[in-house]
Each structure stands twice: as structure tokens, then as C-alpha cells.
């Protein structure tokens, strides 16, 4: 059986988990946290999560994992059958994962973990995010899903990452850049959370956070 390795606080772990649950693909969860320990590096070259263990070996990077699942289980139709629509779903995922979340990740040290980010970094990231969010707004339909009226694999990325972008900018700048740009991610997330797979992802994340708090 496929093993998904990581932990429930990771949005990229949850992105893959959402795909697996949404499409009814059997898998086992294995708790792993990022580290530079050699035992982890043997499975994930940079010591990151998630990674997938299969009978053929290990596979890292969330989007590579999703692409593998789509190829291995073609009957699940993880991506749209139409080549153009599938390409647009991949485009949307790239915008969310790279242009939005990975850019905002530079703020997480201060936003979520009690550290500080330099004023120079804040200024640079603000400019990047404003530019990237403007581009995202040009392609995101939110009608009510990212790619239009139909739920798609792009929404597994949007669901787990857009809240982080909004929360991080609110915490660091005192302004939610997404809401400020007219991207109502809160209503969007509420729509996605009606899906059982999304509910499971959220419940497991909350349980992990609760269990991690000092007693």
C-alpha cells in the first residue's frame, strides 16, 4: 500500500492527503517531521515532507506526487480529461504553490513561529506578493471554485495554502493581502470544507495542533 509520510500541520502534506481521500485511493499515513537526519535523507533528499513510499521507491515534492497518482490511477480522473482544462488546473496549482504560498513562506517565521523578519525582507515580499496576487486574481474564477463551477484538483492546493497566505500577511503587515485584493478566500475555504475529504484533512490538522500543545 502507498504510504504518505509527513505530518498534519504541513499544507503540502495535506494537499496530497486531500487528493488521496477525495479520489478514494487507499494509503497509510506515516508520521515524519522534516530533519537533516540521514535516515530521512535516504527517503527525501532535502529532508522535507511530504514524500510517498511506493513499491517502486520513494517520491518527494507534493506536485510530483500528485502527478504520479494521476498517472498511476487514470480511472480516478484526478485531472480533467480535457487537455486544456488539465493544463489550466496545473497552471492554477503552480500559482498557488509557488507564486503565492512559497513567496508568503518567507514571512512565516514572524507570522506563526514567534521570530522576526527583517524590514528589507518584508518590503521585498510585499512587492512580490502584490504582483503575484494581481496575476492570480486574473486567472482565479472563484465561481465558486478556483477554475470555475466545478471542483478540481487545483482546489486541493487552494484549500490548504490560501489561508496561510492571508493569515501571514495579516499577522506581519496588519492587512490580509488576499482579502484586500478582493479574493474572498474565507468563503472559498468554507465552500471546499463541505467536502468530506476536506473535513477529514481539517479535523486531522486540528487534532495534531491540539495534541502538540503543552499540557
TrEMBL record:
UniProtKB keywords: Transferase
Domain called GST N-terminal: residue spans: 1-77
GO MF annotation, one: transferase activity
GO CC terms: cytoplasm
CDD domains: GST_N_family
UniProt keyword Repeat, yes or no: no
Source organism, top-level taxon: Bacteria
Protein name: Glutathione S-transferase
Amino acid at each position: 500500500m502507498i504510504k504518505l509520510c509527513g505530518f498534519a500541520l504541513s499544507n503540502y502534506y495535506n494537499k496530497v492527503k486531500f487528493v488521496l481521500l477525495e479520489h478514494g485511493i487507499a494509503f497509510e499515513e506515516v508520521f515524519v517531521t522534516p530533519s537533516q537526519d540521514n535516515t530521512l535523507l535516504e527517503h527525501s533528499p532535502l529532508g522535507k515532507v511530504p514524500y510517498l513510499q511506493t513499491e517502486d521507491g520513494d517520491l518527494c515534492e507534493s506536485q510530483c506526487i500528485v502527478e504520479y497518482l494521476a498517472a498511476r490511477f487514470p480511472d480516478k480522473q484526478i485531472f480533467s480529461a480535457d487537455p486544456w482544462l488539465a493544463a489550466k488546473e496545473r497552471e492554477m496549482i503552480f500559482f498557488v504553490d509557488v507564486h503565492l504560498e512559497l513567496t508568503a513562506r518567507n514571512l512565516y517565521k514572524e507570522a506563526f513561529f514567534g521570530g522576526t523578519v527583517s524590514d528589507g525582507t518584508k518590503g521585498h515580499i510585499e512587492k512580490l506578493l502584490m504582483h503575484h496576487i494581481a496575476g492570480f486574481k486574473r486567472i482565479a474564477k472563484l465561481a465558486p471554485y478556483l477554475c470555475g463551477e466545478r471542483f478540481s484538483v487545483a482546489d486541493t492546493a487552494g484549500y490548504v495554502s490560501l489561508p496561510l497566505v492571508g493569515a501571514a500577511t495579516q499577522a506581519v503587515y496588519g492587512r490580509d493581502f488576499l482579502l484586500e485584493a478582493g479574493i474572498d478566500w474565507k468563503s472559498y475555504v468554507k465552500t471546499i470544507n463541505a467536502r468530506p475529504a476536506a473535513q477529514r484533512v481539517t479535523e486531522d490538522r486540528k487534532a495534531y495542533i491540539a495534541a502538540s500543545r503543552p499540557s
